[in-house]
Amino acid sequence: MNKKGVQSALAFCLTLFVLSGCFLWPAGITITDAKTATGVNESLMPIQVTSLFPKQTSKVCCWFQWKNAKIDTKIVAKWYYTTDNIHILDYNFSIPRREGSGSVSLSMPEGKTLPVGSYQVTLNIGRRTIKALNFRIE
């Protein structure tokens, strides 16, 4: 392969790398576990793990564990009401240490409940989803 061919091949590979979003994925971060639950305890462990919540539910927690993160990795929890294909909320937060656990929640105002139907919460870094959890309110 001549010099021009090598340059073209390298440019093509770099383009694929950029388009695939690899610059947006911090090396090594891994979600080791994730669950939906009714809450978390003082130790940040999930309480009443389930993907099926009763009709009068006003709060759903997304609990997760991670390892190999860069400190201050930015994550977005995106909540969706998939029954009607509605994006509900984005919640931005930073990972405070290399490994650990934490939670985010979807809560209704006092006296209100979440509508019956199917939902999804995704954990995202940049444009990439690193974990998706589905749950239902019945």
Provide key terms for this protein.
single chain, 138 residues, mainly beta, Immunoglobulin-like, five-stranded mixed beta sheet, four-stranded antiparallel beta sheet, 1 helix, 9 strands, 51% strand, globular
Can you characterise this structure?
This protein has one helix spanning 3-19, and strands at residues 30-40, 46-49, 52-53, 59-67, 74-81, 86-94, 100-107, 117-125, 128-137. By secondary structure, it is mainly beta. Strand 5 (74-81) and strand 6 form a beta hairpin. Residues 5-26 have low confidence and may be disordered.
CATH class: Mainly Beta
Per CATH, the superfamily is: Macroglobulin (MG2) domain
Q: In which range does the helix fraction lie?
A: 10-25%
Give the overall silhouette.
Answer: globular
The CATH architecture assignment turns out to be Sandwich
- Average predicted confidence as pLDDT: 85
Number of helices: 1
Order of helices and strands: HEEEEEEEEE
**How many beta-strand elements?**
9
Based on CA atoms alone, the radius of gyration comes out at 19 Å
Query: Given the helix and strand composition, which structural class is it?
Result: mainly beta
CATH topology, which one?
Answer: Immunoglobulin-like
| Termini Cα gap | 62 Å
What is the strand content? over 45%
